[in-house]
Amino acid sequence: MTFAHQILQGMTWHARQLPTPHEFHYPYRFWAVNLTQLADNPLPNVNMSASHVPTWLPQWLKKKWLKKSLQQSLTLPLLSQHHWALYQFHQEDYFAINRLDPSLDNRLTASLGQPAPSASLLVKAQQTWQQLTGSQPTGEVVALVVLRNMGWYFSPVNFYIGFDENHQPSHFLAEVSNTPWNKRHYYGFLLAGEKTLYQHDKGFHVSPFNPINQQYHWRVEIHPKRYASANDNPEQNGFDVVIDIGLTDSRGKVFNAGVSLKGVQLDEASVITAIKRRPWMSATSLLQIYWQAFKLYVLKRVPYQAYNQRLPQ
């Protein structure tokens, strides 16, 4: 039984304890793409006809004459893997800056018979796990990613979950982007089944309000579920997910952030419902980041931390 493509929806939160308390949360969504099955089971092309005109359109666009003309001629592409759409899965958006060391890259290239930079997203995830953990998942790999929105890609973090041959979570990978500096970094570790706690030193400067000499504390929970067979589709696996990241240093607990998301099977109905609810998620996420940064720096006077600046001992 394979893992279904899913839409994971719920909330993301940020809670700062030091040097000044500050909290916020807002709705969030990942697209859970089964990379192992992608070649045989690509993401569907989903279009929206006039019968699905969403409530967020301006009132003048929802007049009967426009609705009638849309029914006769136009549809809005909502989701696609190979063509432009409001949301597009574009594999080149991920692992765009890969940190594979040359020796490992050359060995894997020789064994795979293709250059790693042009390899599939699945192969790049497996290569990165090999480098960071010394092993690769023996089962399927599911990517929790943000898609291009109106042709524009932005994501603070993507996650990749590897499973063993018994469909148990075995590997975890975080693809982290630091928004102001446009760099990427990868953290990978092994999962101990459905709930894993893991900690390590921080190796990448992300926030301009946190120093580099800190420690990460991860809590990863993968809660399995099943999707019943329907419309000639077989029964498939799915999951809900909770990912919480704590940050500590010599002062104590500084910050934590995370997501708590429920999965629904990705099909035409769920895509239309999700996008009608939040059509511009990439833009709203970026606005949230800079709005919260403004409040921290200007209103709450949290000190700015230069790139790779260390906390004084």
Short description, anyone?
This protein has 313 residues and is α+β, with helices and mostly antiparallel strands. Helices cover 20% and strands 36% of the residues. The chain has a 10-stranded antiparallel β-sheet. Strands 3-4-5-7 form a 4-stranded mixed β-sheet.
Features:
313 residues, alpha+beta, ten-stranded antiparallel sheet, 20% helix, globular
Task: Explain the overall architecture.
There is one protein chain. With 313 residues, the chain is of the alpha+beta class. The protein has one domain (6-299). It is 20% helix and 36% strand. The chain is built from five helices and 14 strands. The protein has helices spanning 64-73, 102-112, 121-133, 268-277, 281-299, and strands at 6-16, 22-34, 46-48, 76-80, 87-88, 141-145, 148-149, 157-163, 169-178, 183-190, 195-201, 215-227, 236-249, 252-265. The strands form two sheets. A ten-stranded antiparallel β-sheet has the order 10-9-8-6-2-1-14-13-12-11. A hairpin with an 8-residue loop joins strand 12 (215-227) and strand 13 (236-249). The N and C termini lie far apart (53 Å). Residues 104-118 have low confidence and may be disordered.
